[in-house]
Protein 1
Amino acid sequence: MTESKLGKFFENKLVKSFIVYSIFRAFYGAGILLLTWIFATNTQAPTWVSVLFLLFSMVFSRVLLKQIKKRQSKRNE
């Protein structure tokens, strides 16, 4: 039995990693933007606090994604 070309494509580690990264960024990014919007519109904090929060979330998301990848690679071994 031969696998389809599409099946082989989705079995590629690079493709799997890209899909996981894309899903993570979509949900995380939407959540961060929602939190920032709520924080910026419902508090008396200056605008720079929201910008600082967004910058922090960029760094935090990279760290979080690395931890997720480590867990996933340990599970796949």
Protein 2
Amino acid sequence: MTAGNADWRGKLMRTFLSLAAVLCFAGYIFSPPPAQAQDLSDADCQEHFNPFMPALVLKYEVAYRLFWLKLMHLADAVVSAADGEWFSEASGEWRKAYLLIFRLDTLEEPAEAGRGRYSIHNRLATVLLKPSLEPLSFAKRDFMHVDTFFSTIDVNNTEFFSVESGKYDYVKKDLAANAATTNMPYFNRLVSQRSEAFRFMKTLSAFYAGDTNVLSATNGFTISIYTDNAFVPFNVEIAPRLKSVNALNKQYKTIYFEAEPAPEFSGKGRGLSLWVAPFGYVAEVTADPGLVWLADQTFEMGMIPLRADFGLKLGTVRCSLVRINMSASLP
């Protein structure tokens, strides 16, 4: 394998790590970090979160494409969202919140995890207060093994922060090196970035509800996204009209936008395209009575990503919605 091919594979694998950020940017990511623990567990989730109704579950296929051809099914991603209340150990109170959980898994057998050419198993979680969508706490679990012949990348860590106590608590554990750090110099910018992203999604929802033909004459803006170990400004352009996209054997009218790193940051991050639509509209088109009921009860500003494309030097990684359903519990 040439050095060029090794570099291409490395960029392809790092693209997986961008999926969580982009789905979060699109408005639907959630999960459960308790105030006293930094590792994610379902037991902690159940102890600290009380759901008011069934969870919304979205499943995505992650595939590598060249031109119009799908060449490889790389991974599956699952996003779960629940409406309820979160117990804040800092205040001793239950607070109305959304709990969101994101999982990304490559397709190897469990016994092969951490081996072969690539193996990625990530979980991202956050708690968002209602109705402001202010992030209360955030946690993630990263496991990645990438072998490009010329180099090997191994990541095995957990990361957690919380603002429940009125100040930020942060810890990152490197499980491979058995080391930990509490220094997060970019914390304030990260919180600001998430607030900007959710404010933008609420604006998109209002656009869609107000006029399904023309969005806005002033549809460009810039947002900074933490990628490749740097905050990179992305220039975002929203298409002036809705675009149709096929998903779940249906055709949906979606808001479409593209984001590219600012010219001076062309070596950081990758361009992306995103097709999104309000949850209520998606539920109506799917004609699932349960989803229609859920949309009437919650996630008023929720935007569903139906498709996302991540540009590579050669081809794209596409994240496509393949299932949407309700679940009695968070998977």
Protein 3
Amino acid sequence: MAPSYSETYTTFVSSTLNARMPDVVSQIRIDNPLLAWALSHKKPQVGGRNVFIPLEYGQHTTSFKRALGRGGSIPIAQDEIITECWYSWTTYGHGMCRYRDDDLENTGKYQVFNKLRADIDNMIYTFKQGMELDLLSTESTGANKFCGLRGLVEDVDCAATATTQTAGSNTVGNLARTTYPWFTNWGRNMTGLDPGSNLTYYMREACNNVQHYTGALPEVIITHYVAKDLYEDECGETLRTMQVNLGDIGYKLVEWKGIPFLTSPQATTTRMYFMGKNTVELMYEPRMWFKSTPWKPLIQQPFDYVQQVLAKGQFCIKKPRGCSVIYNINN
């Protein structure tokens, strides 16, 4: 028996969506350098009730001996320098509905294809806007969404050269920074300070902080274009463009000291985040990373169908000391 129109339609729509699903992930990042940067730090974790990140902190002090002379001994002891933090999984979802009247009105291969393409484009835009907004939020535990930079990299006024280190106030990765101050980032408060006289100095200090703890300059500076333009206007230095590979995609970005600026309209206009290498990870569940369900009939809605796309993961920080923030710029 030949398949019915509804069966043929469903097969066409499903096959088109499945064929374009790899493009959905690519399109989410292809025109958004911030998401491309986050996705370039993607790491799988199969299963688990939570996202677990092993941490290295402190140093061996008991077994370190100075002025070891003839016949001297080294204490046989092992300090505990390894711990673990954990984050909650977060699952994002998006549904696409097919209503019977829309199906009837868009009969024909090309009409169906055009409508489906519009639905997929809308899904890409929705995921992109939602994830970008969350990655720059104040979320620090990941209970309801991806953790954001303003939660993971706190506003603390402290540099690596300070004699007394300042702890953050957030609980990040199930570690309260008031109890574990070593799990806090660096930062500088520019309230009341003239950017023309102070911003360059603090930007250099932030780079030095990151380089001291990661061995390299920051890989990106994340900010709003207002803050980037303010730097260019107030400090008068010439910014250049450079080709930057974020994952497998190349972008032409404005750079300072060889560090690219990643600007986002969702970022605050008063902050610059200096992110060191290997400081963050986007953990994801490979079995549930942009996976789609079959088309399902809606209850009590005859000949209406829905298909849902899910993405499960979490944005985590594992080395806050490799990050620094300048905040209250031009306040």
